[in-house]
Amino acid sequence: MSGLNPSLRRSGIVALVAVAVAVAVLPGVAAAQSGAGGTIVVESGETVSEVNAVGGAVIVHGTVTGDVSGAAGEVLITGTVEGDVNVAAGSLRISGHVGGDVSAGAGSIHLEDGGTVDGNFDAGAGEIRIDGAIGGDARLGAETIYLGETASIAGSLTYDGRLEGNRDAVAGDVTRDRTLGPTTPTELPPLASWVFAVYAFIANLLLGAVLLALFPRFSEGVAEQVTTEPLKTGLVGLGVIVAVPLLLVVLLITVVGIPLALVGMFLFVLLAWVGVVYGRFALGMWLLSLQGRERIAGIGRPWVALVLGLLLGGVLAAVPVVGWVVNLLLFLLGIGALAVGLYDRRWRTRERSPDAPSEELPVD
Prior knowledge:
Layout: H1 6-11, H2 13-22, E1 29-30, E2 39-42, E3 47-48, E4 51-60, E5 63-64, E6 68-77, E7 80-81, E8 85-94, E9 97-98, E10 102-111, E11 116-117, E12 121-130, E13 133-134, E14 138-147, E15 152-153, E16 157-165, E17 174-176, H3 190-214, H4 216-228, H5 230-253, H6 258-291, H7 300-317, H8 322-351
Parallel strand pairs: 2-4, 3-5, 4-6, 5-7, 6-8, 7-9, 8-10, 9-11, 10-12, 11-13, 12-14, 13-15, 14-16, 16-17
Antiparallel strand pairs: 1-4
């Protein structure tokens, strides 16, 4: 198989690793002769056709005549894989033999002394250490890349990050390619950063306008929830962003729950976006309240608060560390207030008499 798609290397490695870490504590599912479980093991002396796994760990002590693919908290290969290794993992260690290519995204990757890869080695990670032998080319993107004294790369090395150690281990050319590393906002050209900021502001403003136009009282109630009970609201928001992704992962690995998980992912992303807008809207409402209601009153007040909050949120996003922390808090408050508001609305609806008209959405 060919190496990882460059766009996957740049923007998808973190997501893949997050999935791998998340499923590390959950039961695994493997499509291989080795069976299924939280830890997928091909025992020494055992031979299977392939391993396709999502689990806590994938360990190969024996022989896999085909490919090893999947996501796991840990992938360890001490035996033989005659095909390719394509994995997303918290950590990948190879001390055995891989007859094909290696394509990996992980927190840490180590090709140990005695480990061999006959084909190409294509990887993105936080840290990569090469002490074994690579028969083809290596394309590595990491914060730190270390070549040990026993390392050997028969082809060329294309890398991005801090390269340390034995450069003589590379028989071919050594070239730095910054496209291999993850792109961060600080690496974007100034013009691109401004274009992105303006685009984000316009998108958030349009969503906020829709929310205020369709659900004015509900939206103001969300802002009031933030200002009156910030601690409770923030804790609810934290619970939502922890519990919902875990639930979606559980549905995803049950196979039959995959359709529900996909729908749930879409809805969660949408609700998270609404939470961002509501958090900044609440900030604007709070700032206006400090000026006194007589200054800005009437139907225009929420609209002024929306624009003010979105502008301040966008400005804060450009401030290192502090701005990120403040926007994270606003997000937690926004999604927490949204969750409380929807729960309260649902509870009031259920308490109505059977003859009363039902109302599932917060229509104003």
